[in-house]
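quick one
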Amino acid sequence: MYSTVSLKSVLFVMLLLGTAQISFGQNYSVDLTDASYNIAYGKAAYQSSTSGEGYPSRAVDGDTYGKWSANSVTHTAKEANPWWEVDLGSQHDITGLDIHNRTDCCQERFNNIVVYIKKDINDPGTRLTANALTLRDLQFDKVHVKAKHQGRYIRIVRQSDQPVYLSLAEVVVYGERAKWAEGSSDKLSAEIVNKADCSGSRVFPDPISAASYKNIWRINVAGTVERSTNRGGTFHPVKDDRSMTQISAVNDKVAWALKGETIFRTLDGGNTWTQTTGYGTSISAVSADVAWVVNGNSRAIWRTSDGGKTWEQIQGGAQSVSAPFENFAWVVNDGRLWFTKDGGKNWELKNNNIKSVSAISGAYAWCIDNNNNVVYTLDYGKTWTKDPKNQFYYYVECTQGSEAIAINHCGDLVLLSANR
Ligand SMILES: [Ca+2]
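structure w/ calcium ion:
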């Protein structure tokens, strides 16, 4: 497994790489299928395409052997910018990775390689290699890339405008599961992304809505609508804030909001709000056209599919709603959590002890229970995991499947990540 690189070649590469820190060599004296050592082992892997049964999982099977015939090397189709990616399953503090090349031929395919560490699936990522790793002519077996980054996904890209292949024998990743804040546990990592002063008693009616991991809308304590595009680190008021009381965002442009029981919608990031014809006490936006609304007094559930011009009453009753899709909705009624996947024709009871719910699909839902603890499901409500630390949270909002943003007893914005 030793690489046969000349000193001259190494110096050449270091010049090319600038600040990128890589090195070659070193054998393993440990078991690469030990997940406490190799955090990528057995994790879900993906790639831009697959050819010749060169599945992405072959780069996380714990076997660094590089000969194609041994069925442990990945292979994409010939395409521009082929990539490979591993999902570590939760946020990790990553300290480095070893990339093992195919060895029976084709080592020149490992050139113009760039490594990214990504916080979430849509994050463009932090580029680890300052310059493209240009290793043509080096005929190496293994390269080590140093890191000091937190993330969940590692993506390896072969940069090329022309169609090319990407093959990897193994990607060994070093690091440990992120231990963020005091409230973190084995089940749940917690990171305070925006600290409040934690003084006095605060009331948060329903103040945040996450359109994505990075894109968060909220109503601040003064009643102003604000937006953040950096995971809640900083917020800026929208132009036309209207002192809304609840907000449900679709993306950075589209959001629906309540002012009292009146429903408004914006299509331009809060520069202008237009009143719709509906009324309610809990709203959940699906798109610019589709939203679900609940009237907590009558328990009536309504849905619009035309941007709020007309509303159709849905069978059932609820006090609050979170609807990820036009026909999918989770609702809370008298402390019970129900789910429909057919527009309200049928409802399934999912939990008996829930105060509020936020969901981005049928599978993933995050809730506040009646003791103000966070509970979540990642499997359609079959099993629930409760925050083992029993932290007090006012509110939780799902940002992507296994992650959510919450408001704790101090009013801090806390990023929660379910560890798997
Ligand atoms: Ca392998």
